[in-house]
Design goal:
single chain, 24 strands, five-stranded mixed sheet, binds beta-L-arabinofuranose, mainly beta, five-stranded antiparallel sheet, about 350 residues, about 5% helix
Length: about 350
């Protein structure tokens, strides 16, 4: 059985001791968790799947769903969708399909799985010699979140980009977010835009990907993966990217903006905000490098939980920390979000336990 070594932390902005057992999924690699409370009263998440052996983003070919009633113990409901479901007859020598960050929501008796279609056209090259890439959002449907989904609409017209996420407001309006902070309302049929897409104004210029909206006490919180940081190179292992896995948030009074910048939502394991090493002895923390992140927030029994991912598990297993494999051998983690009196967010430090 796999287990993760525990490194004691001196202090932490989250709950103590770490109640979630991060990463929460240890028998396989998962990323891009999208959590929602479903009618059975459990939290369900759909996740991307990274291969055991890694291999890069083009090897992401399926989604799993998981459910939990305590955020720590998760049931794996297995594969609910795969590349076979969208491109059964494709000749892989022509196009490469990949399944990146999805979302799954319940609506009017059915479950809807939003996924980005990501196609690399091997024979249609850009000027730089690399294959052209096409991306857009599509949706599949199922009667149950642990059953196979079938394609409902193979392209949602008006979308271009990756990372779809759904937010249902208290007035029952449904919003789809995707790509570079695009947002539009969805029609009742869940596969057509009801409004023209708009670029959400969020008060900063550090958006990279992974838009997600949640609401608390009438305020809208929009979180995203930032583009701060430098690349890590094998040749220069000291050139460590301190903020590659950082999530920020912006907030305001409308799900379509405008919003203003709020601050950091999630920062890398072991780092204090803007202060460099703080809690740990870095000679002994091999998993500090997380090459990506992707946030999802769910409110459950009155508390808000942030889902994110790290490379803690794969780094530990490989006993290495500048290994490209870990870029796509990621693991979903959960921590509670705490707020200040004025509603601003206390940054959540990534944990492992
Ligand atoms: O997991 C594949 C891609 O990496 C996602 O779509 C992005 O958000 C990033 O997590």
């Amino acid at each position: 059985a796999m287990s993760i070594q525990v490194f004691a932390q001196k202090e932490n902005s989250n709950t103590e001791p770490y109640p979630f057992g991060n990463p929460v999924i240890k028998h396989m690699y998962t990323a891009d968790a999208s959590p929602h409370v479903m009618p059975d009263g459990r939290v369900w998440m759909v996740t991307s799947v990274d291969l055991d052996e890694g291999g890069g983003y083009s090897t992401m070919h399926s989604y799993h769903t998981f459910s939990s009633a305590d955020m720590r113990n998760w049931t794996d409901h297995g594969e609910v969708f795969s590349i076979e479901d969208i491109a059964p007859n494709e000749n892989p020598k022509v196009d490469d399909y990949a399944l990146w960050a999805p979302d799954m929501v319940y609506r009017n008796g059915k479950y809807y799985l939003y996924y980005p279609v990501h196609i690399r056209h091997r024979q249609d090259l850009q000027d730089n010699g690399r294959p052209k890439v096409t991306t857009y959002i599509a949706v599949a449907v199922s009667n149950s979140p642990d059953q196979k989904f079938t394609v409902l609409k193979d392209k949602i017209e008006g979308t271009r980009g990756i990372d779809p996420s759904i937010f249902v407001d208290d007035d029952d309006e449904v919003y789809l977010y995707w790509g570079s902070h695009w947002v539009a309302k969805l029609k009742d049929n869940m596969f057509e835009l009801a409004t023209e897409p708009v670029k959400l104004e969020y008060g900063e210029k550090n958006f990279m990907e992974a838009p997600w909206m949640h609401k608390r006490k009438g305020k809208y919180y929009f979180n995203y993966h930032t583009k701060y940081g430098k690349p890590v190179s094998k040749e220069n292992p000291d050139n460590i990217d301190r903020e590659k896995s950082r999530l920020d948030y912006s907030w305001g009074d409308s799900p379509m903006g405008p919003l203003s910048y709020g601050g950091i939502l999630n920062y890398e394991l072991g780092y204090g905000v803007n202060e460099g090493p703080k809690y740990m002895d870095y000679d002994y923390v091999p998993w500090r490098l997380t090459q990506s992140n992707h946030g999802g927030v769910v409110t459950y029994h009155g508390k808000d939980y942030l889902f994110y991912h790290t490379s803690a598990l794969s780094s530990w297993r490989q006993d290495c920390f500048v290994e490209e494999g870990t870029w796509t051998q990621r693991s979903v983690c959960v921590d509670e979000i705490r707020y200040n009196e004025d509603g601003s967010v206390r940054p959540v430090q990534q944990t492992v336990s």
